[in-house]
From TrEMBL, chains A, B:
This is DNA-binding HxlR family transcriptional regulator. Residues 15-112 form the HTH hxlR-type domain. It holds the Pfam family HxlR. One of its GO terms (molecular function) is DNA binding. Gene3D superfamilies: Winged helix-like DNA-binding domain superfamily/Winged helix DNA-binding domain (1.10.10.10). Signal peptide: none annotated.
Length: 112, 112
């Protein structure tokens, strides 16, 4: 381990931006955030709307977004209750950050 | 494959922000961008300055940042030439985006 590390693992892990980058750098979170920014969606709706995502990955992505406080999961209707996913205020605010990054990216032509 | 997909794989891959998110969502790129934003660094300097990164991952991260136009690799001095890595204008601009995201993240308390 380098003794004169400027960027230590501890500092890196504690940095607030690290948590955000994990979310937005994840393959499917941006797509889910984008759809939920339009309106609330049910699980199957999200599954149908995102090409290539498995139900397992959608479950994992939604749980991670929920745990990070970006998405709210609301059961509704008689049992077996249906569920709607919506963006929280923090989720909407993150979506704005993504939109700004998208504008920056289109100006700087950063296609993959 | 879902026929009524709103977020198709093709559209997702072509979206400029996807390319940027791949870079900044990658484990080590933000740390390299941060160090190079301060000043140019040699390979060994970067290796010593980032705790936990392997030389193989540093090589891969630098190559990806170079290919995306964020980092410039400049050989200098007599053979075997030494190399300095610096941020391009696009790299400095991306670094500003990361800084803005960091400010957003510290306000929204998004620790990992």
């Amino acid at each position: 381990m380098s003794t004169d590390a400027v960027v230590t693992t501890a500092a890196y892990e504690a940095c607030p931006v690290t948590g955000v980058l994990r979310i937005i750098g994840d393959k499917w979170s941006p797509a889910v955030l984008r759809l939920l920014a339009e309106r609330g969606h049910g699980f199957n709706e999200l599954d149908r709307s995102i090409e290539g995502i498995s139900r397992r990955m959608l479950t994992r992505t939604l749980r991670s977004l929920e745990e990070s406080g970006y998405v709210l999961r609301t059961p509704y209707g008689p049992a077996p209750a249906r569920v709607e996913y919506t963006l929280t205020a923090r989720g909407r605010s993150l979506r704005e950050q993504l939109r700004a990054l998208g504008q920056w990216a289109s100006v700087h032509d950063t296609g993959p």
